Amino acid sequence: ELSGLALAQELRVRMPALPVVLATGYGDRAAEFRAAGLLVLQKPFHAADLEATIRQALQAAAPD
């Protein structure tokens, strides 16, 4: 069984170009995800926050 963080890290190994965004309602988990270099949405979030974070993830994954 994988946690969200472990799954995100495994995805990065297998598919480095895949954009990954995690969502959590726990502040300590959000800090842990950010420290691992992942984009995080803190629950509760608004649709505009989701859109902005997804755009950021896609831009970061886009080839130069």
N-to-C CA distance: 35 Å
**β-sheet strand percentage:** 5-15%
What is the number of beta strands? 2
Q: Largest sheet at a glance?
A: 2 strands, parallel
- Residue stretches low in confidence (pLDDT < 50, at least 5 long) are none
Question: How much helix is in the residues?
Answer: 40-55%
Strand order of the largest sheet: 1-2
Give the overall shape.
Answer: flat
Order of helices and strands: HEHEH
Structure class: alpha+beta
Count of discrete alpha- or pi-helical segments spanning 4 or more residues? 3
The gyration radius over C-alpha positions equals 12 Å
Mean of all residue-level pLDDT scores: 94
Task: Describe the model.
The protein has 64 residues and is α+β, with helices and mostly antiparallel strands. It contains three helices and two strands; from the N terminus they run αβαβα. The chain has helices spanning 4-14, 27-35, 47-61, and strands spanning 21-24, 39-42. Strands 1-2 form a two-stranded parallel sheet. α2 (27-35) links the parallel β1 and β2 (39-42). The protein is flat, with a radius of gyration of 12 Å.
